[in-house]
Amino acid sequence: MVDSINNNESKTYWIIPSRPKYFDLEACFKTYGFVDWRGSFYPNIGDIVYVYLSKPVAGYIKYKCEVINNNLKKSEVVNQKQFFLSEEEKHPKEKVRLRLLKRLNTDDFVKFEKMKELGLKSQIQGPLKKIPAIIINYLESKFNTNGIVDNTIERYNNEAIKQKAIEYSKRMLNKSYVSKTHVYSRNELVSEYVKHRSQGRCDLCDNKAPFEIDNKPYLECHHVLSLSDGGLDTVFNAVALCPNCHRKIHLLKAHNEIVKLKNKILYYSKNEFQENEIEDIKKTLKL
Hints:
The protein is an alpha+beta fold and 287 residues long.
């Protein structure tokens, strides 16, 4: 149990607000498992952060995170703009990376009213650092007892991920040419497999991943034909890129680099699909 306020602890406990009206934090966590946080917030590595989803949309704590980087370099920041639900506000650039540890289900959300009952004196409009120990203990108890971790990927070994990702992609290939249905949802097995398939190297620059998270090379899944333009969320439309190349391909859209990625996918596909399926893949890639 926490016996005192943060200042005397080896790690600090924070509560920070997130506005679900402006940013889809749940989708970000499901995609990356972390968020590169924006705003005036200066924690230490290892600090614990509870994320409060603000009113009027919510009004409760749902996530428990850990600070794994408190001084992100520009080249390390992941482009998570797709999770903004409205125009971005003016605020400091991302400096802090928060890794999701646990989330609470609906029945277990810790509401603002409960924290007020336990002694919280102020509204949660910015990062809170000086939190009464009784509130920290209550939050820790809640997450230790009822907190859950999204471990869908951990249930599969690498071969199972490959099989399931390819099976799913074949179904999407059939939909593309039979029902002409465009699919905009994301399958996390596709993302996990293409990153494993690249063997820790960027599919564009061929360099090793610049760093690791949880002992895994950090690469990002990129759709060669974007989902918004009708591209499919499949292993034959996805590659693994380092953060630098991922940002570059979105900003520059260099034709020769896009062609390189398409050819890399065809190279992979020869070991994943049958010859007649590869012809259909070429059509989806517009080759």
